[in-house]
Specification:
- The complex is a heterodimer of chains A (278) and B (262).
- Chain A is of the alpha/beta class.
- Chain A is built from eleven helices and twelve strands.
- The termini of chain A are far apart.
- By secondary structure, chain B is mostly helical.
- Chain B has one domain.
- In chain B, helix 3 runs antiparallel to helix 5 and helix 5 crosses helix 6.
- The longest helix of chain B has 40 residues.
- The model of chain B has no long low-confidence stretch (mean pLDDT 93).
- The chains are: A alpha/beta (278), B mainly alpha (262).
- Chains A and B meet through helix 3 and helix 5 of A and helix 4 of B.
């Protein structure tokens, strides 16, 4: 076995154990106004972390920091073991190809068809057209939107756009998924469809993820359900059980005020959390 | 510090910061020409949108500007019995000055605004962030192809405008001023030297660069939702038009200086 292969295997083994994302006392502000202050947490392999908080508290900012789309004013951020806040954009672009991000409104490219949107990353890598077609169809099948293959984003509904965005994020089997309010502004039925896809991704591919939401119902559906592969849909966990790999973070007034399990969250004595959950 | 001075201080700082940002932006756009990956298909798409799409306005502007030059100059030249020089007057004015500037202004109105609004919309709908999240550098994918396409197509559009302007002048000279067509073209051709053409075709290279970089710069720095997109579009057109006219003066001065042998 060559030294390089050995090194690569050691790196992969370390990555499988080490946290995928680490925030260490991260702060950021805009035009003199602090948005996040001394935020520290981590996302472990196979873990789903739900970031809760009221609108405008800095949840999306935190998600963009995790992907290097924004740079912090203070603190360290590690993504796949690399400290990302100081490395040049060129290197960050490479690291980002290992992540998948679902934006608040989908952020699909208006001028491209669903096929080109979903297969964008593969097209950038100049993969053979037949392989791109096949993988785009697989990803669209995962989100149950295969019939939209040739359509333009403008002709899709809000919920369909989010599902296409999920297909685009998962097509290259990322090592980390970042969901920015994937159900924001959607009706309850469509929201459940989206959350079911997040659960399916979590339970089928075990991709670590960080999900931002202010909708408690979605958050609790995530931790109280599992995906049943045979039935082809999500089913509730037995009464009183929650998914062990799904946990919570709560942001309030720029600070991370909670980091823990579902049980710890519901039994928290913090006045803000009690009011938020009420 | 008094309030007015404080305001002035703030404005000056913002202007210097904007100039610094624009310079870095331009440097990155040019440096990307020598860095992989290259998006040649995007260059071709933009060349089609910017170049081919601008042909109708450039044809009309060039033709009628040449026509009106012939119309106005013939009346003045007739006073000195020099109507035969109409061709010379039209071709020199068009090729050295009017075709590059007017083509630049027309393309700026059409495309700097288009670039600013397109990229601005992509910013406010997070498409640029999505592109970065997918591992693509928006400067390489969106800005450099637009810059290259605008520089090349504006050069070619200026040649179209030169040709159509001279033709427009000929139509007016022959059909309205009842001049001899051969005389017009002979005068137009004999007046021109190589340096006139070189001067007229150097300017669009700079103008094309200004149009694309200003349009993209304002687009990529859009803030404030749809209202911000509108603001960026207006700023792009105003700044690129003013810069074209200003740089035309500087370029003319510099090129005349070079032509005179320093």
């Amino acid at each position: 076995m060559g030294a390089e292969t050995q090194l690569e295997l050691t790196r992969t083994a370390n990555e499988a154990r080490d946290p995928v994302v680490i925030f260490e006392e991260v702060s950021i502000g805009f035009e003199g106004t602090p948005v996040l202050e001394d935020v520290s947490f981590h996302v472990d392999p196979g873990e789903t972390r739900i970031l809760l908080g009221p609108a405008g508290v800095g949840k999306s900012v935190l998600l963009k920091l995790a992907n290097g789309l924004l740079r912090p004013d203070k603190g360290q951020i590690y993504l796949f073991g690399r400290e990302i806040e100081t490395i040049p954009e060129e290197e960050l672009l490479q690291i980002r190809t290992r992540t998948g991000m679902v934006f608040q409104e989908g952020a699909l490219f208006d001028s491209l068809t669903v096929r080109d949107n979903v297969g964008y990353q593969l097209m950038e890598r100049h993969l053979p057209v037949t392989e791109i077609d096949q993988r785009v169809r697989e990803a669209l099948r995962f989100v149950e939107l295969e019939h939209t293959y040739d359509m333009l984003p403008a002709s899709l509904s809000g919920g369909m756009r989010r599902r296409v965005a999920i297909a685009r994020a998962i097509i290259d089997q990322p090592d980390l998924l970042l969901y920015d309010s994937p159900t924001g502004g959607l009706d309850p039925v469509t929201s459940t469809t989206i959350i079911e896809l997040v659960i399916k991704e979590r339970d089928v591919y075990h991709t670590p993820s960080l999900l931002v939401t202010h909708r408690l119902q979605d958050a609790f559906t995530l931790c109280s359900h599992r995906y049943d592969k045979e039935a082809g849909h999500m089913v509730p966990l037995p009464h009183g059980q929650t998914d062990a790999k799904t946990s919570f973070l709560v942001l309030h007034a720029g600070k991370l005020i909670f980091d823990g399990s579902t049980e710890a969250l519901v039994s928290s004595e913090d006045p803000f959390i009690k009011e938020f959950l009420a | 510090m008094p309030f007015a001075l404080e305001n002035l201080d703030g404005i000056a700082k913002r202007m210097i910061l904007a100039m610094q940002e624009y310079s870095i932006f331009c440097w990155q756009a040019v440096a990307n020409l020598f860095r992989s990956p290259h998006y040649w298909s995007d260059v071709m798409t933009q060349a089609d949108l910017i170049g081919v799409g601008s042909i109708p306005i450039v044809v009309l502007t060039g033709f009628f500007t040449g026509g009106v030059l012939a119309l106005q100059s013939a009346a003045s030249l007739a006073q000195f019995g020099a109507q035969a020089y109409t061709g010379r007057f039209v071709s020199l004015s068009m090729i050295r000055e009017l075709a590059p500037v007017l083509t630049g202004l027309m393309v700026s109105g059409r495309n700097a605004s288009g670039m600013a609004s397109e990229l601005g919309s992509m910013i406010v709908t997070e498409q640029i962030d999505a592109m970065r999240a997918l591992g693509t550098d928006p400067m390489k994918k969106l800005v450099t192809p637009r810059m290259l396409a605008t520089v090349v197509t504006l050069f070619l559009l200026t040649i179209v405008s030169d040709t159509l302007g001279t033709a427009g002048g000929a139509v007016v000279a022959v059909f309205i001023n009842n001049q001899n067509g051969t005389q017009y073209f002979n005068s137009a051709y004999q007046a021109l030297v190589y340096w006139d053409v070189a001067q007229g075709l150097t300017k669009p290279i700079f103008f094309g660069f200004i149009i694309a970089t200003v349009g993209c710069y304002f687009g990529m720095r859009t803030t404030g939702g749809t209202q911000g997109v509108g603001r960026a579009t207006t700023q792009a057109v105003v700044v690129s038009s003013v810069l074209i006219i200003f740089s035309d003066f500087i370029l003319s001065r510099a090129l005349l200086w070079v032509a005179s042998g320093f």
